[in-house]
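Notebook entry, cofactor series.
This is the third protein in the set we're modelling with a bound small molecule. For this one the ligand is 2-acetamido-2-deoxy-beta-D-glucopyranose. I'm keeping the input format identical across the series so the outputs can be compared line by line later. Sequence and SMILES below, as received.
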Amino acid sequence: MFLSSVLLLGLAHLAASKPLSVKRWDDFEVKHAWAEVPRGWTLHAPAPADYMFDMRIGLRQNRFDELVSSLYEVSDPAHSRYGQHLSMEQVHELVAPHHDTVDLVEAWLAAHDLDADSAQRSPAGEWITLRVSVAQAEKMLGNEYSIFRHGESEEYVVRAMNYSLPASLSGHVNLVAPTTYFGTMKSMRATSHINLHAPTINTDIDLLDGPGSLATVPSSCSSTITPSCLRALYNTASYVPKATNKNILGVAGYLEEFANRADLQTFFSRFRTDAVNSTFTTVRLNGGGDDQTDPGVEANLDIQYTEGISFPTPNIYYSTGGSPPFTPDDNTPTNTNEPYLDWLNFILANSTIPQTFTTSYGDDEQTVPEDYATEVCNLFAQLGARGSSIMFSSGDDGVGGGDCLSNDGTKTKKFIPNFPASCPFVTTVGGTIRVNPEVAVSFSGGGFSNYFSQPSYQSSAVSTFLTSLGSTNAGLFNKTGRAYPDVAAQGENFQVVIGGRTSSVGGTSASSPTFAAVISLLNDFRLSQGKSSLGFLNPLIYSTGATGFNDITSGSNPGCGTNGFTARAGWDPVTGLGTPDFGKLQTLIG
Ligand SMILES: *[C@@H]1O[C@H](CO)[C@@H](O)[C@H](O)[C@H]1NC(C)=O
Ligand SMILES: *[C@@H]1O[C@H](CO)[C@@H](O)[C@H](O)[C@H]1NC(C)=O
Ligand SMILES: *[C@@H]1O[C@H](CO)[C@@H](O)[C@H](O)[C@H]1NC(C)=O
Ligand SMILES: *[C@@H]1O[C@H](CO)[C@@H](O)[C@H](O)[C@H]1NC(C)=O
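Returned structure with ligand:
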């Protein structure tokens, strides 16, 4: 029926462009292929042909280049558009696919007996999600899906070693998922976990000089970090938030990490008594839970320190589900463990979004397929254009953990950058330790992306560093890549209440919420002056904002059997531009 009507139409349009249905959908071009099964996973079995899953197709965003140039203009304090963030509708116009792209993709779906009308579409239409069987997906993508098992967690995922797209879709489809991203996302307190031997304290009342005074940083902050330490160190203690009816700080949570409300009250009663009885909102998405009998170390750390510094600013904890994704004996459809995409699409679909976000999770960049990383990074560009400041932990393995061998089949030794830390559209936070002076903490993740080229906002700072570095570590990192971290904050000995008990926790997991809370207070200041939020921070902090940081000039981040990089005057890939001085930054942005 479909075919014959097309033939008739075809006669009438002989001289016009070829009807879509005549296209071949089997002249495949490889979109992404792994050389080896991703580390930590083993091939378990072929995926059942009738297993159903939600396939997400990312269409080329027709005016994405304009989105990026708008992002840079509204984020650059020297530009006339500074602070004129885009509305949701304005972003949608720029990321919407061209109608030719939509037509082509719909024809491709129709050729595989899929009903494009029943698909879910993102508001701008650049994401199409529809339920397919493994057999259908394999025909569409010229690949094979299998069940892979993760060694440590014993989780199972349905994924492919590669996927291809018809040549005629080249330049129209950016990403199909789930395909080759296996999702090895981890929390960035991976190395330090809870340090059982570190000292803990149950109240920091003695730290205070007098009631409420935090004029100097107590020396005890070198071994135990509390909100009082951080408020003194980063100079926020005397600031009283005023825009609490508008300003929001968002904490992204994954991996079944639940933020505990009772622990937060205990934490406040011990370390921030004026905040007792204030709480946070939990927003659950994609099947995310909120089990109050199972406090998460990461979740509690994040929320206790964002609230401990930003109080009384409202905080939202996002519990994003997505794990475990697949039970090999159960053929019922489940969600597909694509947590970044789920979280970002959820946030971006809302016309009001928090002005500040922190995320303490990430993957080794090389374990995230480049097309997937690019799509996720581009979604952060949308968030920035909308006026949000987005912080990520830089990672807890210095320049790289383990053997640092490449996974491209050549097993070349090289530094292993982290993603999304390596995305140029986020602000990446490294770690420090001790006070008077602060020094780089040795696990502070830092380095250079192999996917994203160096954005111009940091080229001067990075080239100064590279000149002073000389030939050290030559060949182990990509000099032309996006370099990180951008900034730093304390990352060790954080006093965190977990299950009623105070524990000492570390990791750049602690640094990102700390830095984000300081930024949230700066956003409060801007909003209370009737100004815009700060939005994407990097163009500001590498230019007029640079003098608002305490430069960290000693310590290093060893890894991969090397001494890593060394902190030095100016920007460095251990502590970035340094740690924030709220008072100075307030003057610079005022
Ligand atoms: C894609 O993966 C399959 C195994 O699933 C393999 O047989 C095939 O050679 C791979 N193709 C490419 C281009 O890597
Ligand atoms: C907190 O709430 C409890 C119960 O409503 C109340 O008794 C207590 O006074 C409150 N504490 C503060 C500091 O507001
Ligand atoms: C949009 O975000 C606000 C907070 O920023 C929240 O209160 C509201 O529930 C969200 N709406 C939806 C539909 O998620
Ligand atoms: C180095 O980074 C650039 C992006 O700046 C990228 O195009 C290139 O492939 C990277 N080189 C390697 C060896 O990964």
